[in-house]
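hey
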């Protein structure tokens, strides 16, 4: 039952993300637009390039969706509403997100198209940049909770949410989440203006629908991870736990979509330089500060 509820929640979140993206890009609000766009893609012919690597070409959209679903599998919506409460849940999320890179490299290489290939390699550059900024803030969160159980991490925030206890870790994780989802200002792997949609360039029909669904579910999964690690998950007064989780996830997803539209696009080499020269030292500083606070009993 928990699996069904969480999958339905992810689909509802993906629908909300599609609505907000449509509002930001077109300036209109049409509740039926995401459903009509999905129906149009499913009804359209799926064109295959002339000399694709068929296995990579066909597998990439499905793998992206699976990676996003796996990341959400260890994220609780309430104390009992979780697919798998793994003892290594925090690390499992990072392992699941590693397959996002695999999926996008496959989407870039498989079609045998120039724009798609450039988009895939651009995402590889982003992964080298942000990968440590995903795992290191999770390390600091686990230090405070003294556990990698995601339910224990939420429970450790009864007094102070981690967003206030370790704001530096929250900021770094949020920036890294934007890069994982290749959202603006880190959307160069799919830059429509110069790469004709990049990693999506050679996909049409049902394949493109699955690829876009995977990206939207990925946004919801990263928003849920941010809520669990830094915003207290289901914790909150008066309302049922799952309602608090849903509200926080939607708020973070909206912030992820809005933030990039007010910032200039960042090249992957600039992101790499920033993350390795500044981001990683700040993440280490965050771990040190949290460790001292835990030892001091704060």
């Amino acid at each position: 039952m928990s699996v069904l509820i969480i999958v339905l929640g992810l689909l509802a979140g993906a629908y909300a993300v599609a609505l907000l993206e449509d509002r930001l890009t077109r300036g209109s609000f049409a509740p039926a637009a995401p459903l009509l766009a999905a129906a149009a893609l499913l009804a359209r012919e799926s064109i295959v390039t002339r000399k694709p690597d068929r296995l990579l070409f066909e597998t990439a959209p499905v793998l992206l969706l699976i990676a996003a679903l796996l990341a959400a599998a260890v994220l609780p919506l309430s104390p009992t509403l979780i697919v798998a409460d793994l003892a290594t849940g925090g690390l499992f999320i990072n392992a699941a997100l590693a397959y996002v890179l695999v999926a996008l490299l496959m989407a870039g290489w498989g079609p045998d198209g120039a724009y798609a290939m450039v988009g895939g390699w651009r995402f590889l550059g982003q992964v080298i940049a942000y990968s440590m900024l995903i795992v290191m803030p999770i390390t600091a969160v686990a230090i405070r909770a003294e556990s990698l159980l995601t339910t224990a991490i939420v429970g450790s925030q009864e007094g102070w949410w981690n967003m206030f206890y370790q704001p530096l870790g929250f900021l770094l994780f949020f920036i890294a989440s934007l890069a994982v989802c290749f959202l603006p200002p880190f959307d160069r792997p799919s830059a429509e203006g110069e790469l004709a949609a990049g990693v999506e360039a050679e996909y049409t029909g049902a394949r493109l629908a699955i690829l876009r669904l995977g990206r939207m579910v990925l946004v919801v999964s990263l928003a849920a991870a941010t809520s669990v690690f830094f915003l207290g998950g289901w914790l909150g007064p008066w309302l049922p736990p799952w309602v608090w989780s849903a509200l926080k996830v939607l708020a973070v997803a909206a912030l992820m979509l809005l933030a990039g539209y007010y910032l200039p696009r960042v090249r992957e080499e600039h992101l790499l330089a920033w993350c390795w020269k500044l981001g990683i030292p700040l993440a280490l500083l965050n771990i040190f500060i949290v460790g001292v606070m835990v030892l001091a009993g704060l």
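The two ends are 39 Å apart (CA to CA). The mean pLDDT is 84.
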